[in-house]
Amino acid sequence: MTIAEAAPRLAKGELKSEKLTEDCLSKIEELNAKLNAFITVTAEDALASARKADKEIAAGRYLGPLHGIPVSLKDLLDQKGLPTTAASSVRRDHVADADAVVTARLRKAGAVFVGKTNLHEFAFGTTSEDSAFGPARNPKDPTRSPGGSSGGSAIAIATGMSLGTVGTDTGGSIRIPAAACGVVGFKPEWGQVSAAGVVPLSRQLDHVGPLAASVTDAWIQYNAMLPGELRVGAQLEPTPVKGLRLGMMSGYLFDRIDADVERVTLAAIESLRKAGATITEVALPHATDMPAIYLHLVFGDAAEYHARTLVSRPQDYTPNVRLRLEMARYVLAEDYIRALRGKAIITSEIDRALDGVDALVLPTLSIPAPPIGAATMPVKGGPDAVRTLMLRCTQPFNLSGHPAISLPSGTTPAGLPIGLQLAGHKGKTPALVQAALAVERLIANAG
Amino acid sequence: MTIADWLAMAKADAEKRGLPELIPALEGLAQATERLRAADWNDDADKDKPKQ
User: Fold this and answer.
1) Residue A28: in which H helix or E strand, if any?
2) What does residue A245 show for φ and ψ, rounded to 5 degrees?
3) Best of B6, B15, B36, B40 to disrupt the A interface by mutation (most A CBs within 10 Å)?
4) Is residue A234 scored above 80 in pLDDT?
């Protein structure tokens, strides 16, 4: 059940939050041992919140479409009274003394928190396999990664362990697991949603946003996360596909790609063309510089945050994350500054690519979910490192801060999900979401 | 500092700290840094020097 399906029934009293929450908790009970999606489950608190929501709704105090909805939080966000582990033993004694801003916003909107989800330790990875609580596993094939770093959140949505969830995205960590698990992941424009109360990876690249079962559900959660007056009930209609102007990213962002991802992505774009969308090819002249720019920025920022604990308790990091953080400490200031310059170059090139189109379209992930532990994956042009492939299509919009959304576009013959990504103009998020609604509808009708 | 000098110092430091497993990773970082420094949008102090 989606949030958009549950909300009107909750509002009318046809469905009780307590029942909905019990169903989610049952799913967690049934599947968590196998998939390792949750680090903390707050069953008693969730049921108490659900009963309170039911009473409020019955008394005519309905808050909107998140009221009584079971929601999970990536365990990188503070929830008052609970540990924020960041999937690391480094934070084993931590207890949040206040809600993160986003947690508080969702609480105000009436969300029922069912627990904190597993992730790649400190969000410093794309597979969710390096976690002090063990690897999270893909619900479509538990031998594979669910993507990351918000892997547990994507699993929660894909399996119905929660109807909504919050992730974070520094290089693709909302969109990557969304694509790998077959759900929607929305990275808002940088700075729109507060990251206060969220363990940072790179404050200049970190984004907070929703994962959901549908674009509408992502929009509902996103609206609740925005500052100011609660706008959770704002509704959007899909843009007509006829007349939609899309820029298809070519070159670097399409040249090292799995054959099934390429086939499904091109089929989706062709469906859009047949339905009346205008497709033009666009490229970023300095796209090949992006991995180096990204690496130096994230390394510099992560090294600053972890400098003290790398010295005082290095044994409390998982080995791979510790190794990469140690490596990060060797980035020179002059190269960090070069990367900042590169970030500005990429941002202006994405703005130019968007000139004359409504959104950019490209794969989210250049590969399907990789096997847990895989170092490389085969793609067109020969095998490449999993980490490089996972970040390839998502990191441009972390460097630039443009809003971007991933939605399911098909599967491999083995049933592994494939995601299509749309990136939009800054300051025009509703237009991007309207385009995503149209694409979602078109793909659903084609399927 | 040249990348070669930086890499030599970083490798020696990793050895001294008992982290030899860092060395292949540092070589990868050095390649990324080479790429970054080679980008055509970098500024150089003599870039706008009048041609002789």
Assistant:
1) helix A17-35
2) -105, 115
3) B36
4) no
What tens digit of pLDDT does each residue of A36-61 get? 999 999 999 999 999 999 999 999 99
pLDDT of residue B16: 96
- Which pLDDT tens digit goes with each residue over A244-296? 999 999 999 988 999 999 999 999 999 999 999 999 999 999 999 999 999 99
Q: Which residue has the tokens 């940072």?
A: A200
Mean pLDDT of A411-434: 98
Beta bridge pairs of residue A164: A71, A212
Could you tell me which residues come within 8 angstroms of residue A135 by beta carbon, excluding any fewer than 6 positions away?
A: A36, A127, A128, A129, A145, A372
d(CA A330, CA A388): 20
Place of tokens 């996103």: A222
The per-residue b/e assignment along A238-251, b for 16 or more CB within 10 angstroms, e otherwise, is bbebeebebbbbee
- Whether the pLDDT of residue A129 is over 50: the answer is yes
- Tell me which residue in B1, B25, B36 faces A338 most closely, judged by beta carbons: B36
Which whole number is the average pLDDT over A180-202?
Answer: 98
User: What distances in angstroms separate CA A405 from CA A103, A125, A359, A408, one per listed residue?
Assistant: 21, 20, 10, 10
Q: Which residues, 6 or more positions from A423, have their beta carbon under 8 angstroms from its beta carbon? A: A350, A354, A359, A360, A362, A396, A397, A402, A403, A404, A405, A432
ipTM of the complex: 0.93
Sign of the Cα pseudo-torsion (A376, A377, A383, A384, in order): negative
Overall average pLDDT of the A293-322 stretch: 98
Q: What is the pTM of this model?
A: 0.97
Interface of A with B (CB under 8 A): 286, 288-289, 291-293, 295-296, 299, 323-324, 326-327, 330-332, 335, 338-339, 341-342, 345
Helices vs. strands in chain A: H and E counts, helices first: 14, 13
Q: DSSP 3-state helix, strand, coil percentages of chain A (rounded to 5)?
A: 45, 15, 40
Placement of tokens 């970082």 in the chain = B29
Pairwise CA distance, residues A57 & A2, whole Å: 19
